[in-house]
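Throughout this chapter, every protein is written as a compact record of paired, labelled lines. The reader may check this reading against the record printed directly beneath this paragraph:
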Amino acid sequence: MIKEEKNTEPKSKDKKQTPIIEIKNLHKTFGEDNQILKGVNLTVNKGEDLVILGRSGSGKSVTIKCIVGLIEPDQGEIIVFDENVLDLSKDELNKMRVRIGFLFQSGALYDSMSVRENLAFTLRAHKRDLSEDEVENEVIEALESVGLGDAIDKMPSELSGGMRKRIGLARTLILKPEIILYDEPTTGLDTITSREISELILDIKHKQKTSSIIITHDMACAKMTADRIMVLKDGVIHAEGTYEELEKDEDEWVRSFFE
């Protein structure tokens, strides 16, 4: 378990590993004085699921959106696959994004497209040399990996919230990403469906050897999926450890997440 002061770098539990993601001194302010990130430092090792906790508005989602260039930070470094994201050209960034899956809170499906069309559209945008048969096979494989092969011809409006999350995840998986960023993957779902999504996150990690950052308020999801947890407070990493370590933390504010 590690406690962090502002603008200090969290200690790594495994010095021998080269992080697949490393964020150094990340700052982001919106408007004139809404400073969200004040020097975030974090690492994700290959094959690790890192959960980030924090109150609403603490900058959790901002942090992962900076990783894929959806938000541009004011200061800091974001090293992914040994490259600084902030130094990449637009083409280089797009190539990196293919290796990084991002699951949005809503699932972000195109409402005017069927499930098949949603997944095929993503695949064709990045792998234009595939034949129609190859696209179809990839779509079926991705849907079966999330247990929804029979939903291929449905429209998003016909799907439950949990199904939309699964289809969104299938669309992410179809590009075979090495890293997946989950933004509140169980928000708005009932307890049973939330558990199913958490189990799916673990299954994907083990079968596809992905590394992940999981943003969540769902402590059951955090307990099930996290190899390590970081807690954001006042724009910096305030505490780090396993679920069991942070559950017994001396800091009452940290413990409040686990009550």
About this structure: DSSP finds nine helices and eleven strands in the chain. The domain at 2-99+177-258 is CATH 3.40.50.300 (Rossmann fold). The radius of gyration is 18 Å. The chain has two domains: 2-99+177-258, 109-176.
